[in-house]
User: Fold this.
Amino acid sequence: MACMSPQLDNTFHALADPTRRAILSMLLEDDMAVTDVAEPFEMSLTAISKHLGILSRAGLISQERRGRVKWCKLEPDALRDASIWMQSFGQFEAVNLDAFEKFLAAELSSGDAASGEDG
Amino acid sequence: MACMSPQLDNTFHALADPTRRAILSMLLEDDMAVTDVAEPFEMSLTAISKHLGILSRAGLISQERRGRVKWCKLEPDALRDASIWMQSFGQFEAVNLDAFEKFLAAELSSGDAASGEDG
DNA sequence: GGCATATTCAACCAAATGGTTGACGAACGA
DNA sequence: TCGTTCGTCAACCATTTGGTTGAATATGCC
Assistant:
């Protein structure tokens, strides 16, 4: 079942926290260093670093170290997958899920063959 | 900030659990009683009842008691809100509905009348 | 009334979460 | 080299989570 995907677990869990959603919003504007991400929050740098780790594990952002600075970059693909899953409910109420899963598989395999569905 | 919405918190948190997503999938087919929802899971009825409570608080389902039986019904509106939030990250091809419809059409024509899938 | 069915409540538990602080390593610049 | 900045690690803490069990509350049926 597509709904069992641990990737969806990670994505939705990452999105369930307002701090993390705010971080994503910030990264929408531009790539940022960890310290700069943390700046507007009343929270320790460590806490933000953990949030970024969660976003990164979920594939929602990527992080690249350049010198001392670690740059954070929005990676919308994971969001896209989750969005597609959601739209199967929001708009395709009457639609056959099997067909939709096949569609997803075809879509995903054309981009990322490694994503273990049905795990 | 739109990303701070506690409604989004609830929605995404509810979606972050594979059991709850599976429940939503089941409800996609038809309304169900709590006991029937619980049946396929290797988990106590109480646990399922809690999951349904979480889905209900998130607005993803509604529950209506008729006699002894409490019927659970999918409520796609909350999903739509979250989906809209995700689309605000518009960097990904806003879920390709056209592609999916074409896919469906292709499926139907290749499978011909053999599709017993029934909408 | 009395018993079965449907669902929730209360109490409990282990594990995970989101946060803290202090110490640490790695990279920069004077 | 020395101090500063950037970021993570380790340990800890309170709260929440997802699950259990057993009792309780409705409701329906004979």
